[in-house]
Fold this protein.
Amino acid sequence: MSTLNHNNLSKKPVGFFDSGVGGLSVYARFRKLLPYENTLYYGDLANMPYGNKTKEELIGFARKILDFYKEKDVKAVVIACNTSSAQAYDEVKNDYEFNIYPIIQSCAKIIASMDYGKIGVFATAATVKSGVYTRELQKYNKNLKVLEIPCPNWVPIVENSRYKDASSIEDVKKQLDKMEKFSPEKIILGCTHYPYLLSLLKEFAPKELFIDPAEIFVNYIKTDLEKSCLLNSSGGQETFYVSANPESFMTHSKIFYNVNKKPICTQ
Ligand code: DGL
């Protein structure tokens, strides 16, 4: 491919998606690492939470967003959502010409090579049901023991900023107590909403116990875009989309990322 074609390709945007504000935990790190990329973010608030949806539903949501991004002529899409990576990625990955980066599969090799013996995973019910975390991690380290625990109440806590409610604190403590019995050396926050619960989690366990895959993920994407000569050095624009409730997105995104203009509602 000529340099001219590469230049044109590199200027195309990178699309991100998640059910809501959770994917901003990945998006914020990406913007910091690669500020000159043109980026799009899609929060699928009409279908949120993803964690209690069926595989068929999740494949449908992913296809709809990927088709939307195809129309937007993106150079890549980042699945900033563990649930969609777990349940939909395999079904859709060969149907688009742009690169698709799923959070779980992109990070598993790196986490597995860290040489831990026991890793815990907190994730949504749909992610846990898929068993993808265990499968992907053991693909690269077959002796690794993995325990996945579903935390169905955590996404609503984050989406509604209910960090200080007694019931939220109690639920976080309850899941940590369950996990403690397994004595993991590390716990993966296997849902992009969960890093926002760190201030609560660290009241009951050391902060260093937790792995937020976002950091590993964005570095992986950067290396891959670099390898394909797709890094942009002269852009930086961003646009936000939601499938419903733009006001709610604005309100609850505040502590994660400075979304400075109202998202465009696609429905
Ligand atoms: N933040 C997403 C994830 O990483 C989805 C959470 C949800 O909507 O249930 O799994």
Remarks:
- The chain has a mean pLDDT of 95.
- The chain is about 45% helix and 15% strand.
- Residues 106-215 form a domain with the Rossmann fold fold (CATH 3.40.50.1860).
- Residues 18-19, 22, 48-51, 81-83, 124, 127, 155, 191-193 surround D-glutamic acid (CB under 6 Å).
